[in-house]
Sequence to fold (203 residues):
Amino acid sequence: FGIAQNQPMSFDIEVDDFDPSAVQALLGSKTKLGGSIAAHVGLSGTMHSPQIFGHAEISNGSYVSDLDTVPVTATVAAVTFNRRTATLQSFRGFFGSGTIGAAGDLSFAQGFGVGGDVSYAFHAVASGAQVNLPAYGSGAIDGTADLVRTPPGLAKLTGAATLNNGSIPFAAFLGDSSAAATTSSRPPVNVAWGMKVTAGKNV
Fold:
């Protein structure tokens, strides 16, 4: 299934109080979603030159899966679309007893699919955010991070973070030959790593 790059598209979608648990089975990894989504989005143009207008918001969102077994709760987020850009105006969620806040922009001026590409820049701040990634480790994170991509290069993740009250399994250092790499708990990652991570208390 595919859409030709120059095939005209036009549709408008509006949802109110949509429960994301209706699509959680599509994500695998025993994902469970919750919350309420409201959105009004219109799409026109082509895959090569799309134009998207509208907005989307989520309230009281929640997430947990085999990728991260610490529940994310009380999430609120707002996204706006303006022709060839999308702006994450705000994101805030409780990761265990800590929080993560984020904002940023994405541009798809070059379209999607074959010959298309996207650029983006997002900034996030973590304060005691608890995670438990079976393939990578667990703990509480304090710090900041920036995820930036300028086509055609890889996205680059930079920033500084401190991990407290956590552990990192030895298998996480063994690469794809490790047993951890064969499990569904390892998400696909394809970014240039520039984060400075410091071991804090009880690590």
Observations:
- Residues 154 and 191 are 6 Å apart (CA to CA).
- The chain is about 0% helix and 60% strand.
